Amino acid sequence: MSSIASRHGWTPRRVAVLCAMVAVVAWWGRLALEDIYRFATGQTDNGYILLAPAVGAYLAWLRRSRLQFLRYRPSLFGAALVLVGMAGSLWGDESGYQLFWHAGVMVAIVGCVYSMTGWELVRQFAPVLLAVALMIPVPGRIRDALAGPAQEFSVAASHATLEILGVDAGREGNVLIIDGQPVAVGEACNGMRMVFALGLVVFAFVFSVPFSGVTRLVLVCAAPIVALTCNIVRLVPTSIAFGWFSSDLAQQIHDIGGWVMLPLALVMLMGIVKVLRWLDLPVMSWRLLPS
After folding, report:
1. Distance (Å, whole) CA 80 – CA 82
2. β-pairing, 169-172 with 175-178?
């Protein structure tokens, strides 16, 4: 145990107790954690869940110097979080509300750490905790409520873009007609996969740079718009490819477009930052003095 850790009240015994508490709660809620993993690996739409712990680990690494501020400060509120989380998880399991079943275990694990570090855990590592919270699967009702409008908007915007480009395009519901060839891309490419995945990318970008609070708020609010815009950029050439070329070539274009979306989203985010700087708004939380 280093001298710094000793000065902050951390002894080998207290560290062992903390690790044991987390391990016991994780074992108690292992079925919920396993179910989260099944959600992430069982459906393509939920693949973003696997990205959440990676984003959390990345943000924690960037903030590793802040560990020196985590002193040993026992907190009854942390113990209450453990109890509330476990109770919520049990209730969610019994009543069939998977959101509470999953979230309760996460709250209980965070409560274990909070019970020995106090408020400083949230103060120093709030972005990490939020990233971990994004591991909780979004309930199907919420996804369905969002998917409908997103699908409608994506198809309508793609149809309008194709007409502007001079492509012979029609529309029947959520099916685009390219030169008389029906292209059913609405349901497969409604943008919901991209919204959640790009949301995590935006989150990592926003909290890995010392942006001001206003800049972070603008970027986070812009995330859904960026995701839907990227989806339209992908849909237009994909629709043309399925209408004009073979299905194999069109599928390749579709897959390539998926890989292009992430760098395109980052370029758009950096463009927003440049616009904020052009408006002379305080983009960063601090400014370098001129030499």
Report:
1. 5
2. antiparallel
pLDDT tens figures, 51-98: 889 999 999 999 988 888 888 999 999 999 999 999 999 999 999 888
pTM above 0.70, yes or no: yes
* Separation of CA 177 from chain center: 34
Here the tokens at position 196 are 């959640």
- In angstroms, rounded to a whole number, what is the distance separating the alpha carbons of residues 81 and 69? 21
| Pairwise CA distance, residues 217 & 46, whole Å | 25
Q: Which tens digits make up the pLDDT trace of 84-94?
A: 999 999 999 99
